[in-house]
């Protein structure tokens, strides 16, 4: 698979401006604007903090990312420094 390249220099054109902060089920440190992706194909509940949210959505404040879904970029609330998923997630930062 060949990515887009600049015509004159031949250097790759980066699509998007996001940097991966981490992938997995452990707590991931976050700040600024992020997006969250489910990487297992089974969907994942995501919550702020270092504790894993319940996989049935009963954890207060958790939100659901559908199978292989990606959230739109959103701002991390003040005072929150970590997110964790009920299944493996990928977190990317706009910063």
What are the SSEs and their pairings?
Layout: E1 19-24, E2 28-29, E3 33-38, E4 44-48, E5 63-65, E6 74-75, E7 82-85, E8 89-93
Antiparallel strand pairs: 1-8, 2-7, 3-6, 3-8, 4-5, 4-7
Can you describe what's shown?
There is one protein chain. By secondary structure, the protein is mostly beta strands. 0% of the residues lie in helices and 35% in strands. It is elongated. The model has no long low-confidence stretch (mean pLDDT 86).
Distance between the termini: 27 Å
**Main structural class:** mainly beta
Radius of gyration: 15 Å
Strand content: 25-35%
Apparent shape: elongated
Number of separate helices: 0
Strands, count:
8
Largest sheet: 4 strands, antiparallel
Q: What order do the helices and strands follow?
A: EEEEEEEE
Strand order of the largest sheet: 1-8-3-6
Helix content: under 10%
Look at the structure and give the mean pLDDT: 86
Name the poorly predicted regions: none
Outline:
The chain is an all-beta fold and 95 residues long. The protein has strands at residues 19-24, 28-29, 33-38, 44-48, 63-65, 74-75, 82-85, 89-93.
């Amino acid at each position: 698979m060949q990515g887009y390249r600049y015509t004159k220099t031949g250097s790759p054109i980066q699509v998007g401006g996001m940097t991966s902060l981490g992938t997995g089920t452990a707590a991931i440190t976050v700040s600024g604007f992020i997006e969250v992706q489910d990487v297992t194909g089974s969907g994942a509940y995501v919550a702020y903090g270092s504790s894993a949210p319940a996989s049935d959505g009963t954890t207060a404040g958790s939100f659901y990312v559908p199978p292989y879904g990606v959230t739109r970029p959103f701002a991390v609330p003040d005072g929150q420094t970590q997110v964790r998923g009920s299944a493996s997630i990928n977190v990317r930062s706009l910063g």
